[in-house]
Amino acid sequence: xxxxxxxxxxxxxxxxxxxxxxxxxxxxxxxxxxxxxxxxxxxxxxxxxxxxxxxxxxxxxxxxxxxxxxxxxxxxxxxxxxxxxxxxxxxxxxxxxxxxxxxxxxxxxxxxxxxxxxxxxxxxxxxxxxxxxxxxxxxxxxxxxxxxxxxxxxxxxxxxxxxxxxxxxxxxxxxxxxxxxxxxxxxxxxxxxxxxxxxxxxxxxxxxxxxxxxxxxxxxxxxxxxxxxxxxxxxxxxxxxxxxxxxxxxxxxxxxxxxxxxxxxxxxxx
Length: 270
Known about the structure:
The chain is an all-alpha fold. It has helices at residues 2-20, 36-52, 56-63, 66-69, 72-103, 106-133, 165-184, 192-209, 215-238, 243-248; strands at residues 254-257, 260-263. It has 10 helices and 2 strands. Strand 1 (254-257) and strand 2 (260-263) form a beta hairpin. Helix 1 packs across helix 7 and helix 6 packs antiparallel against helix 7 (165-184).
């Protein structure tokens, strides 16, 4: 079990360090969407996924020990974090967007809208890879983690193990919110970062606990979610006149007008 804990901690730190290393771009002027840093990030996640593959069976078996499966706290926690990944992340993103719209808070709208965008894009990427790789889930092939088959994912959910969609959504939400808040609250990386990435990591662990995914599925999902979240925020803020922001971010910021606070309908607010 100690090996599992070490892997979980390393996975959370990897994603968190990647996000923390990203510069907090302003929205003045277009910036390249992909940089050499992104190559290193993708390479790091790829190596981590490959390194985890030999431990796939071990981690699955460790979490299937009867004492752990019958533990009420672990069982309930796995359910909570599974729901956080899906549909919780999407619901929270939508809630933030609606709250920001209702209260005229542009920053809250940003958080919600961009989180939704990242989750949707991550879902599309993950779904495509699932179908192409056709990996059998642990509940189908508990003792053989190497069962990949080209396009077998078309046969149904049992062969859509790689990568983890719940983990992708959780990390896409975490990366987006952490990156957005860092722009106007730099110290949030030390407060929200550990909470968001820690919760996303536990979402991945819950999927192993439920025999829905292998450990390497979870790491791949974390990679897709983290990179997607960071790229959505970077693109939207370096292209402030993009279609979605122009059409959907209408709250503006609050400013003083005659002694009262009123919303400013503007997209350039930072």
